[in-house]
Amino acid sequence: MTRYVTLTEAMAVVDRNSWHVRDLGLLDSVCQRPRARMYDVELYEGLDLKAATIMDSANRLHPLHDGNKRLSLILVHVFYALNGRRLVGDQIEMADFVIEVADTHLPLEKMSEWLDAHTRERRG
Asked: Which InterPro entries does the record match to this protein (predicted)?
Protein backbone atom coordinates (compact mmCIF):
# COMPACT_ATOMS: atom_id res chain seq x y z
CA MET A 1 0.00 0.00 0.00
CA THR A 2 1.33 3.40 -0.97
CA ARG A 3 2.02 5.94 1.79
CA TYR A 4 1.49 9.57 0.88
CA VAL A 5 2.99 12.76 2.28
CA THR A 6 0.41 14.40 4.53
CA LEU A 7 -0.12 18.11 4.97
CA THR A 8 1.21 17.75 8.53
CA GLU A 9 4.42 16.16 7.23
CA ALA A 10 4.76 18.84 4.55
CA MET A 11 4.30 21.56 7.18
CA ALA A 12 7.02 19.93 9.30
CA VAL A 13 9.38 20.28 6.30
CA VAL A 14 8.34 23.92 5.87
CA ASP A 15 8.84 24.69 9.56
CA ARG A 16 12.20 22.89 9.76
CA ASN A 17 13.48 25.05 6.91
CA SER A 18 11.98 28.32 8.24
CA TRP A 19 9.95 28.80 5.06
CA HIS A 20 6.64 30.63 4.92
CA VAL A 21 3.45 29.27 3.41
CA ARG A 22 1.80 31.55 0.87
CA ASP A 23 -1.31 29.38 0.49
CA LEU A 24 -2.05 26.39 2.73
CA GLY A 25 -4.67 25.10 0.30
CA LEU A 26 -2.06 24.92 -2.46
CA LEU A 27 0.34 23.06 -0.18
CA ASP A 28 -2.47 20.60 0.58
CA SER A 29 -3.05 20.23 -3.18
CA VAL A 30 0.61 19.26 -3.61
CA CYS A 31 0.05 16.50 -1.04
CA GLN A 32 -3.29 15.36 -2.47
CA ARG A 33 -2.51 15.20 -6.20
CA PRO A 34 -0.57 11.89 -6.17
CA ARG A 35 -3.58 10.07 -4.72
CA ALA A 36 -6.07 11.44 -7.29
CA ARG A 37 -8.61 8.96 -8.64
CA MET A 38 -11.32 9.05 -11.28
CA TYR A 39 -14.07 6.43 -11.34
CA ASP A 40 -12.09 4.58 -8.66
CA VAL A 41 -9.03 4.33 -10.93
CA GLU A 42 -5.71 5.92 -9.95
CA LEU A 43 -4.77 8.79 -12.26
CA TYR A 44 -1.06 8.37 -11.49
CA GLU A 45 0.10 4.75 -11.32
CA GLY A 46 3.40 3.80 -9.73
CA LEU A 47 5.62 5.54 -7.21
CA ASP A 48 7.66 7.44 -9.79
CA LEU A 49 4.65 9.03 -11.48
CA LYS A 50 3.19 9.91 -8.09
CA ALA A 51 6.53 11.46 -7.06
CA ALA A 52 6.56 13.41 -10.33
CA THR A 53 3.16 14.92 -9.46
CA ILE A 54 4.53 16.14 -6.13
CA MET A 55 7.50 17.83 -7.81
CA ASP A 56 5.36 19.24 -10.62
CA SER A 57 2.68 20.60 -8.28
CA ALA A 58 5.09 22.25 -5.85
CA ASN A 59 6.85 23.97 -8.75
CA ARG A 60 3.70 25.06 -10.60
CA LEU A 61 1.47 26.02 -7.69
CA HIS A 62 4.08 27.88 -5.60
CA PRO A 63 2.53 27.21 -2.19
CA LEU A 64 5.45 28.97 -0.45
CA HIS A 65 6.69 32.54 -0.70
CA ASP A 66 10.18 31.18 -1.41
CA GLY A 67 11.73 27.71 -1.52
CA ASN A 68 9.27 25.91 -3.80
CA LYS A 69 11.95 24.09 -5.81
CA ARG A 70 13.69 22.94 -2.64
CA LEU A 71 10.35 21.93 -1.15
CA SER A 72 9.53 19.86 -4.23
CA LEU A 73 12.75 17.88 -3.95
CA ILE A 74 12.47 17.35 -0.20
CA LEU A 75 8.85 16.18 -0.46
CA VAL A 76 9.88 13.70 -3.15
CA HIS A 77 12.61 12.44 -0.81
CA VAL A 78 10.02 12.08 1.97
CA PHE A 79 7.53 10.33 -0.33
CA TYR A 80 10.11 7.80 -1.46
CA ALA A 81 11.30 7.23 2.13
CA LEU A 82 7.73 6.53 3.23
CA ASN A 83 7.57 3.89 0.50
CA GLY A 84 10.92 2.18 1.04
CA ARG A 85 12.85 3.95 -1.71
CA ARG A 86 15.51 6.64 -1.86
CA LEU A 87 16.78 9.12 -4.42
CA VAL A 88 20.35 8.58 -5.53
CA GLY A 89 22.73 10.93 -7.32
CA ASP A 90 24.72 13.98 -6.47
CA GLN A 91 23.17 17.20 -5.23
CA ILE A 92 24.13 19.19 -8.32
CA GLU A 93 22.45 16.69 -10.63
CA MET A 94 19.29 16.77 -8.51
CA ALA A 95 19.30 20.56 -8.32
CA ASP A 96 19.73 20.79 -12.11
CA PHE A 97 16.79 18.45 -12.59
CA VAL A 98 14.50 20.44 -10.28
CA ILE A 99 15.45 23.67 -12.08
CA GLU A 100 14.68 22.01 -15.43
CA VAL A 101 11.30 20.89 -14.08
CA ALA A 102 10.50 24.39 -12.82
CA ASP A 103 11.75 26.24 -15.90
CA THR A 104 10.43 24.00 -18.67
CA HIS A 105 7.37 22.34 -17.12
CA LEU A 106 8.72 18.94 -18.08
CA PRO A 107 5.98 16.39 -18.85
CA LEU A 108 5.14 14.06 -15.97
CA GLU A 109 6.25 11.03 -17.97
CA LYS A 110 9.75 12.48 -18.49
CA MET A 111 9.97 13.39 -14.82
CA SER A 112 8.86 9.88 -13.88
CA GLU A 113 11.54 8.34 -16.12
CA TRP A 114 14.26 10.48 -14.52
CA LEU A 115 13.03 9.66 -11.03
CA ASP A 116 12.89 5.94 -11.83
CA ALA A 117 16.51 6.04 -13.01
CA HIS A 118 17.55 7.84 -9.81
CA THR A 119 15.85 5.74 -7.12
CA ARG A 120 16.84 2.58 -5.32
CA GLU A 121 15.41 0.41 -2.57
CA ARG A 122 16.17 1.74 0.91
CA ARG A 123 18.44 -0.41 3.00
CA GLY A 124 17.68 -1.10 6.64
From this structure: Doc, Fido, Fido-like_dom_sf, Type_II_TA_Toxin
Nearest residue to 118 (alpha-carbon basis) of 98, 106, 105, 99: 98
The CA-based dihedral angle spanning residues 36, 86, 114, 65, taken in that order and rounded to the nearest 10 degrees:
60
pLDDT band at 124 (very low <50, low <70, confident <90, very high): low
User: Domains of the chain by range and CATH?
Assistant: 7-118 (1.20.120.1870)
Mean pLDDT (the chain, rounded): 96
Three-state DSSP state, 6: coil
Residue 118 has pLDDT above 80, yes or no: yes
Assess whether pLDDT exceeds 80 at residue 41: yes
Measured CA to CA in angstroms, residue 13 lies from 20, 71, 74, 119 at distances of: 11, 8, 8, 21
User: How far apart, in Å, are the Cα atoms of 48 and each of 17, 18, 22, 68, 76?
Assistant: 25, 28, 27, 19, 9
